[in-house]
Write a structure and sequence with these properties.
The protein is mainly alpha-helical and 61 residues long. The protein has 1 helix and no strands.
Length: 61
């Protein structure tokens, strides 16, 4: 009887650990997606700055 109780407790703890790992994976996936979006925005910002510089150069000529 005591073994069954210990097994149930172990199962509960394992389920909690699995849930915790799944939540962390979801958080990390969201983080990774945010990093990718930030990189894309930085790349676009750099291109816009280059275009502004080109327009400025054309206006000077």
């Amino acid at each position: 009887m005591k073994d069954l109780s210990l097994l149930n407790e172990l199962e509960l703890k394992i389920r909690e650990l699995v849930s915790s790992v799944e939540r962390e994976r979801e958080k990390n996936a969201t983080s990774e997606k945010a990093i990718q979006e930030s990189r894309k925005l930085s790349h676009i910002e750099e291109k816009v700055r280059n275009l502004i510089n080109l327009v400025d150069q054309l206006e000077q000529n």
